[in-house]
Amino acid sequence: MKRKASAVWAGDLKSGKGNISTESGTLKETQYSFGTRFENGVGTNPEELIAAAHAGCFSMAFSAELGKAGFTPTSIHTTATITMEKTDAGFTVTESHLDMTAKIPNIDAEKFTAIANGAKAGCPISRLLNAKISLDAKLEA
Question: Could you give the 3-state DSSP secondary structure of residue 89?
Fold first, then answer.
């Protein structure tokens, strides 16, 4: 399986602008710039897109692992926070922190935590990132 996205950039780093499109059409010429990446401009940025990908990937991986264990979640809500820092090598994504809250009938806290940690490690985006991956998982009654 292969997925595609494209980016177009015009101009220098600080005053230039670009747009990002996905093969599915969900993002179509979505604007990004220095301002959207390092300040608070209107548009998206690569790190925000990585956070969205990680949150979505983890939620699906967790659902899959729950299914293998015989559980069906009522809901899984995940937020990923990407940390980018300036290191000796340059700007680097150093961490992705997952905050997840889920409603899952008939699961105990120990099983919930074990399955969540397995999904964190097994999620393809977690495996892609060369960064610390952390998780706060909460089970709703």
Answer: coil
